[in-house]
Amino acid sequence: MIHGLGTALITPFHADGSVDYEGLDKLLDIQLTGHVDFLVVLGTTAEAATMTELEKLNVWQFVINKVNGRLPLVLGLGGNNTQALINRINNQQQALSKYCEAILSVCPYYNKPSQEGLFQHFSAIAQVSPVPIILYNVPGRTGVNLLPETVMRIYEAFPDKIMGIKEASGNLEQIKHLLALRDNFKLSTNKLNNYSKLSTLNSTLKIFSGDDNLAAELMAAGADGLISVASNAYPEAFGQIVHNADQALQDHYADLVKYLFIEGNPSGIKTVLSQMGVIENHLRLPLVPNSESIQKLIQQCLLSL
Hints:
Layout: E1 4-8, H1 21-32, E2 38-41, H2 53-67, E3 73-76, H3 82-91, H4 93-99, E4 102-106, H5 115-126, E5 133-137, H6 139-142, H7 148-157, E6 162-167, H8 172-184, H9 189-194, E7 206-209, H10 215-221, E8 225-228, H11 235-244, H12 247-252, H13 254-261, H14 267-275, H15 292-304
Parallel strand pairs: 1-2, 1-8, 2-3, 3-4, 4-5, 5-6, 6-7, 7-8
Helix pairs in contact: 1-2, 5-7, 7-8, 13-15, 14-15
């Protein structure tokens, strides 16, 4: 069920820092009426690192109740302390099994583990997760790059648990190399026999672009979808880009996408959504709203779309 366009949801906040559930409700209405195939909740774009466990639980429950099974849900669940992450997964076994199609788990940040350390980290998670895992490679944030050979090694070791990867390295050559490795990879008969629960959904590693500006090219090259920031505001357009590998439409949004990330994420998309009247433009420190100059550039882009 996880394919095509997935929106990495932002978390709206009020000026006092509290979660803006009215804004979140409006945002979810936009997603439910667009061309979105699944939602990613409490990932990096959601500013989850600045939220308490209770806030994350409340937002997660709000999304579950609002969506009410109309879209598959992926929960962001990662960290740089492997044992602590295992404990979090173990504490949520029943809820994950009931409401999640998969978890999105980012590479450990700051620690800068080796490729062997990354393999051991994701192996440990795979052994306890009750749902499939989407690996998340974003070197610009984590300081470590999950290489294609390591991705395939993790998948070969746990083909029933590793659903795919969100590849946000921005390195086209690397991602196309991973696509080639994936397409040439075949599980041995013995390996398949050892995984009787392997579903057709997991029988091929799914590769999702983590960069809005690369979606069309990667879809044309054989990727399986996009986990998007821009689709918070433009789900229909980015759904068409993904499902049709529509390079012309992607080029139409190129300037906007550039400005979305020029001062960090989710500052840009919150500027867009606030100018559209969906949310208030508030972030939690250490993130701040876009500068006035970037807000004006985004406003000009919106007027030209």
